[in-house]
Amino acid sequence: MSEIETLKQWIDESNNIVFFGGAGVSTESGIPDFRSVDGLYSQKYKYPPETIVSHTFLTKRTDEFFEFYKEKMVAPALKAKPNKAHYKLAEWEKQGKLKAVITQNIDGLHQAAGSKEVLELHGTIMKNYCDRCGKKYDVDHVLASDGVPKCECGGTIRPDVVLYEEGLDMNVMEKAVRYIERADILIIGGTSLVVYPAAGLIQYYRGKKLVLVNLSETSQDQYADLVIHEKIGEVFSKL
Ligand code: OAD
After folding, report:
1. Over 80: is that where the pLDDT of 45 sits?
2. Ligand 1: does its nearest atom lie under 6 Å from the Cβ of 27?
3. By alpha-carbon position, which residue is closest to atom 18 of ligand 1?
4. At CB < 8 A and 24+ separation, what contacts does 53-60 make?
5. pTM score, two decimals?
6. Whether the CB of 32 sits within 6 Å of ligand 1
7. 216 CB less than 6 Å from ligand 1?
8. Is 55 a catalytic residue?
9. What distance in angstroms lies between residue 31's CA and the mean position of ligand 1's atoms?
């Protein structure tokens, strides 16, 4: 049996699938990932992107932070449409087969495809709030603002996104752990599994059907029960 046939059989038989993904899930929607050769972190900027998307940069070089954030992270995500991987996950959830999508992505494409239980480990571009009074703003307001988005109270409107040097929401992490601990099949897709603590979630899986669908090799390939090095949208459209 081919890997895809095995995966198809496992999925057909399961009603407790959990998916854990990253930027590679959205590349087929036209959003570049971070670490591939054509990814965001391979492009040349004045500062390394890890520096730009950090808490220090947001507070100390706010203008440059928003210039990069709006142009490279928000605008491409708002233009993008979900792909076959996003739609297939939403379909499995609707059929009662999939319990949750756990994602490191901030682009909102899983919800756009119809997924309901989406745990966004790194937050979302869709939610924004004033760092002084807490007032909430939508993404269109942030994108349409000239330069640094400002609240009516004078504070800066920041995205509800986890930047480097910031901690993850522990409620979201604990929920993700609970789904993974109980999962029958854990499918990990489109993530290099190098950013912690998100990548550490894999350790909580106790089952025997750990599936990795990633274009390139990852350091965790050896622990998986099934490894497929192909585009995730193409793989999922065959299931
Ligand atoms: P990476 O860019 O590190 O990894 C994306 C992985 O997806 C790579 O291993 C690619 O080979 C693979 N890939 C690309 N296109 C694919 C496709 N169509 N099908 C299958 N695989 C594909 O992205 P993440 O692992 O998501 O954090 O990065 C994790 C975190 O690093 C991000 O959430 C972001 C970043 O810094 C923050 O911003 C806090």
Report:
1. no
2. yes
3. 231
4. 53/163, 53/164, 54/163, 54/164, 54/165, 55/163, 55/164, 55/165, 55/166, 56/165, 57/163, 58/158, 58/163
5. 0.96
6. no
7. yes
8. no
9. 11
Chain segment 67-89, per-residue pLDDT in tens: 999 999 999 999 999 999 999 99
Indicate the residue type of 237: S
- DSSP alpha helices (H): ranges in 95-158? 109-113, 139-144
Atom of ligand 1 nearest to the CA of 121: 33
Q: What is the pLDDT of residues 112-148, one digit of tens each?
A: 999 999 999 999 999 999 999 999 999 999 999 999 9
pLDDT tens digits, one per residue of 55-67: 999 999 999 999 9
pLDDT (average), residues 12-29: 98
Which residues neighbour 221 within 8 Å (Cβ) at sequence distance 6 or greater? 212, 227
Distance CA 236, CA 220 (A): 21
Instruction: Give CA separation, 235 vs 6, 13, 41, 190, 227, in Å.
Output: 12, 18, 26, 12, 12
Quote the tokens at residue 228: 């497929």
What mean pLDDT do residues 35-47 have?
81
Alpha helical stretches, state H, 46-169: 49-52, 55-60, 62-68, 75-79, 84-94, 109-113, 139-144
| Residue 195 Cβ < 6 Å to ligand 1 | yes
* Protein residue with its CA nearest to atom 17 in ligand 1: 231
83 lines ligand 1 (CB under 6 A): no
155 pLDDT above the threshold of 80: yes
Ligand 1, residue 215: give the atom nearest the CA.
21
CA torsion angle for 143, 145, 147, 152 (degrees, to 10)?
Answer: -130
Q: State the CB neighbour count (10 A cutoff) for residue 86.
A: 30
